[in-house]
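User: Teach me something about this protein's shape.
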Amino acid sequence: MIEYIKGELTELTPANAVIECNGVGYMAGISLNTYSAIQGKKLCKLYIYEAIREDAYVLYGFADKQERELFLLLISVSGIGGNTARLILSALSPAELCNVISSENVNMLKTVKGIGLKTAQRVIVDLKDKIKTGSASAGMAGGMPAMNTEVNDEAVAALSMLGFAANASQKVVTAILQEQPSIPVEQVIKLALKRL
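Assistant: First, the predicted structure itself:
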C-alpha cells in the first residue's frame, strides 16, 4: 500500500495532480479542497488511497489524513464510489461535511451533483455514529462550538428562497453561527445578506 507520495508537483488541475517522485510521475485524483491546499506549491505531499479494480488502477490524493479518512468513510456507504466521494469532498470542506452529517442536513447533501434524496439519507444513516465517535471529526469539528441546527436550516432555506446558492449560503451561515452561536435566525439572515 502507498501511504503518501512526496515530490515535485509537475501538473495540477482541479481534478488531478501529478507528483514526480524519483523520476516517476504519479497521477492522483483530488478534491477541490486538496487543490486549494496545494495550489502554487512546488513540492507537495499527498496522502494516497489506492483503488484497484479489474479494469483500472486509480490513485486518489489528499492534502491531509482527515480528508482521506472521510473519503474512506464515504466509499464504505453502499452506492458511493471514489468519484462520487471526491465530488462530495469538493463541494463541502471536511468540517462542513462532518457538520452536515452530524446535524442530519439531508438538503445540504442533496446539493452535491449526483446525490439524490435516498443516497443522502443513506450517507447520514451510515456515517452519523462514525463521524461523532470517529477520529475523522476529532481534528475538524472538535474546535467548533455546537451550532443551533434549527436556526442554521431556517437561514439556509430562507437564503435559498431569495435566490442564493445553497452551498454558498451554508458556508456563510455556518461561519456566522460559529462566531455568534446564540443569535436569532433573522439576525443570521441579515448578516448573511451582507456577506453574500
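Now, about its shape. The radius of gyration is 18 Å. The first strand starts at residue 4 and ends at 12. If you'd like, I can walk through any region in more detail.
User: That's plenty for now, thanks!
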